[in-house]
Design a protein that fits this description.
two-stranded antiparallel ribbon; single chain; 4 helices; 122 residues; two-stranded antiparallel sheet; alpha+beta
């Protein structure tokens, strides 16, 4: 089923509905204009701007009246990291190795030692 869009209100026009208008006084890029109801056709003929009518989709899009324009991001649960054993290695061994590798060096003490050594050299 092929639907069209109203030139004035941008409402959908289903087959067998609406009115089509062919402007003959000037050359148009769109030779056939579709309107969903006589109200929209009359507004178009009066050269009214659809941005100023609250019931048109143009107005509602400009003034952000619909939630469809906004991107709603869903919150995802944070992934919980659970330590697990690997084949051929127990969990206790893995944790021991990680603990031995992750020993933090006190950088401030190391920096103080380097400064003291530099002071001795002078």
């Amino acid at each position: 089923m092929r639907t069209q869009e109203c030139e004035f209100s941008h409402f959908t026009i289903h087959p067998g509905h609406g009115r089509r208008y062919v402007p003959f006084a000037f050359l148009s890029t769109k030779p056939v204009l579709a309107f969903c109801r006589p109200k929209t056709f009359a507004m178009y003929m009066r050269k009214k701007n659809p941005r100023f009518f609250q019931w048109t989709k143009t107005y509602r899009r400009i003034h952000r009246k619909t939630t469809n324009d906004r991107v709603i991001r869903t919150r995802r649960a944070k992934v919980a990291r659970i330590p697990r054993a690997i084949v051929g290695c127990e969990l206790a061994q893995i944790q021991e190795v990680r603990a031995s590798k992750a020993k933090k060096v006190d950088r401030s003490a190391r920096a103080k030692a380097v400064r003291a050594e530099l002071a001795d050299r002078k």
